[in-house]
Write a structure and sequence with these properties.
By secondary structure, this protein is of the alpha+beta class. It folds into two domains: about 5-225, no CATH class; about 225-355, no CATH class. It is built from ten helices and 13 strands. It has helices spanning about 25-35, 85-90, 115-125, 190-205, 215-225, 225-260, 260-270, 275-305, 320-345, 350-355; strands at about 10-15, 45-50, 60, 65, 80, 80-85, 95-100, 110-115, 135, 145-150, 170, 180-185, 210-215. Strands 4, 6, 7, 8, 9, 10 and 11 form a seven-stranded mixed β-sheet that branches. It has a four-stranded antiparallel β-sheet with strand order 2-12-1-13. Strands 3-5 form a two-stranded antiparallel sheet. Helix 1 (about 25-35) crosses helix 4, helix 6 (about 225-260) packs parallel to helix 9 (about 320-345) and helix 8 (about 275-305) runs antiparallel to helix 9 (about 320-345). The model has no long low-confidence stretch (mean pLDDT about 85).
Length: about 350
């Protein structure tokens, strides 16, 4: 199943922490709620999780792998989402190797874990990660081991613009806790499905609190709201700068043409064609534009490091972007030179020779 963001509904479900205090009762209420939610027409898959991509994770920790020398630098803190079996199916995250969690992965069974593709690639370069054992925190804390049973595609939890980082997952039934995000994939409109899901949940426990009801599309939209505003602001400044540059180029060329009126008249009296005059003025504008472009590109390359955090899915030194900007600026420069050039074409040689 391929997940579309607009077809995935997420909401934070908070059963009473005083009523459901221990792992057994927490797992039980989540199972009862899930059973009722799955009966809502149109739901194709549903899952619980304590984290929600692309910009929220509930827990992170360092980790260590059995048989590998450990250090804080080698095993930095990474997101550790706790999820139920259908989590990857809801989000459309591919299973690359092994298996996903299932209903048999309970607290009474050996602990199991699933790792992301980037973790498998980084820590198990020349070996099969399946069957290897991983544990949270430093080795001296003697936390329980988790056997790796699967490898899945990478998911971002640190924001849309964040780098891909290693992530490993625990099974919900083996790591209880409240509250939890409910995530459902539906064949119907996910936003319209919300009230029906809430009624299903409250039919089990009327005291459950439900907040943050959003489609995954809305979550992703909100996650990039601030970068989008900054981009819009920079675009506005860029348009204003482009307009000022055009006016400045026009002014310089127009003034130059005025100063060269006598020269242009002499050239035309000696046989220069209007097209040659036009070409001469346009070349002057092109030289000014190219000089400005060279200076601007050099300055842009110098500040790309600071702009990297504002960009998403593109490099701060993207060649196509720089090429497009150069073409646009050169075009603006030629356009700003065109009006003075056309005026120069209409110079009367006799009047120009009398001009002072």
């Amino acid at each position: 199943m391929t997940a579309s963001p607009e077809n995935v509904l997420t909401m934070l479900v908070s059963p009473s922490a005083t009523r459901y205090r221990d792992q057994k009762t927490q797992v039980a209420i989540l199972e009862r709620l899930m059973e009722q939610v799955r009966q809502v027409p149109g739901i194709e898959a549903a899952a619980w999780a304590d984290s929600r991509p692309p910009n929220y994770w509930n827990n992170d920790d360092t980790f260590h792998i059995l048989g590998q020398p450990w250090s804080h630098e080698a095993f930095p803190s990474s997101p550790l989402p706790i999820i139920s079996p259908d989590y990857f199916r809801v989000l459309g995250v591919p299973l690359l190797r092994g298996r996903c969690f299932d209903q048999d992965d309970t607290a009474q069974r050996p602990n199991v874990a699933i790792i992301s593709e980037s973790m498998a690639r980084h820590y198990f370069t020349n070996q099969d990660p399946l069957g290897q054992e991983i544990a949270p925190s430093a080795p001296d804390l003697k936390n329980p081991w988790y056997r790796i049973i699967g490898v899945v595609g990478d998911v971002k939890y640190g924001g849309m613009a964040s780098e891909i980082t290693p992530v490993w997952y625990n099974a919900l039934a083996q790591s209880a806790g409240l509250p939890r995000f409910l995530m459902v994939h539906s064949s119907r409109s996910a936003s319209a499905l919300g009230p029906e899901i809430e009624r299903a949940i409250h039919s089990v426990d009327p005291d459950v609190v439900i907040t943050y009801r959003e489609t995954l599309e809305e979550v992703m939209h909100n996650a990039v709201a601030q970068p989008r505003f900054r981009t819009a602001l920079l675009t506005l400044f860029a348009v204003i700068a482009l307009a000022l540059a055009s006016i400045g180029t026009y002014g310089v060329i127009a003034y130059s043409v005025t100063q060269r009126t006598r020269e242009i008249g002499i050239r035309m009296a000696l046989g220069a064609q209007r097209g040659q005059v036009l070409s001469m003025i346009l070349r002057q504008g092109a030289r000014l534009g190219l000089l400005g472009i060279v200076i601007g590109v050099a300055g842009a390359l110098a500040v790309t490091r600071g702009l990297s955090s504002l960009l998403f899915a593109t490099s701060a030194r993207d060649v196509l972007t720089f090429a497009a900007v150069i073409v646009i600026l050169l075009g603006v420069s030629m356009w700003a030179s065109l009006v003075p050039a056309r005026r120069a074409m209409r110079v009367n040689p006799v009047e120009a020779l009398r001009w002072e």
